[in-house]
Amino acid sequence: MSTDELPEIEIVEGEVLEANGEGSQPSPSPADLGVDLPEDREEAIGVLTAHLAEARSQAENHLDDLRRVAAEFDNFRKRSARDRDLLVASASERVVRAMLPVLDSFDAGLAIEPSTETEQKMLGGMRSTYDQLKDVLGKEGLEPIEAAGARFDPELHEAVTSSGDGDLVVSQELRRGYLLGGRVLRAALVALESE
Which of the four pLDDT bands, split at 50, 70 and 90, describes residue 57? Predict the structure, then answer.
């Protein structure tokens, strides 16, 4: 659009009036914007164009800064969530690890054969409590390592005794091992024999 095609405007008390006299939105005067316009129309358009280019450049810089801050905040949010998850997992692991001796005691107690009716009732109560404890710990990601009869895996089993050479299998589980969240929390203590 050439300058000849621009509509005639007139500034009257802070309002921009088009040639037909109808007002649009009130706009600030050039002085309010800190712009000193020359009297010549062509020079005034050049000054306004230069100010517009500078304003656009500043707006782009501010937008880039805003995008950078938004990206940094998103990274911070993700890092905070990761740190929180690690903290929760660490706390959970500490609690579960502290409960392993309790599970061992239950395993030892439940291995006893009851000889009286009272012992059977007591053993039933112990088994119920043990099952509840395993369910709670299972919700935290604890699962037992299956050992008896399994092929020896040094990542899952800690061998105490071994009889024979070659392919070894677990002949006896001496202490149960556990995984927590798919990682070995404690290897199973086992006795080995040849296949």
Answer: very high
**Residue 188 near residue 158, CB atoms below 8 Å:** yes
pTM for this model (two decimals): 0.59
The residue segments making up the domain with residue 9 are: 3-73
Structure tokens at 98: 């502290």
Cβ atoms within 10 Å of 51's Cβ, excluding its own: 15
What's the one-letter identity of residue 71? A
Judge whether 40 lies within some domain: yes
Q: What is the dihedral of CA 134, 136, 141, 145, to 10 degrees?
A: 0
**Rounded Cα distance, 61 and 176, in Å:** 62
Positive or negative CA dihedral for 84, 89, 94, 96?
A: positive
Write the pLDDT tens digit of every residue in 13-50.
Answer: 445 445 554 556 677 777 777 788 888 888 888 888 98
Residue 30 placed within a domain:
yes
Alpha-carbon distance of 58 to 61, in angstroms, equals 5
Whether 23 is covered by a domain: the verdict is yes
- Rounded-to-10 torsion of CA 28, 33, 38, 43: -100
**Tens digits of per-residue pLDDT, 83-127?**
998 898 888 899 999 999 999 999 999 998 989 999 999 999 999
d(Cα 39, Cα 49) in Å, to the nearest integer? 15
Question: Beta strands 183-186 and 188-194: pairing type?
Answer: unpaired
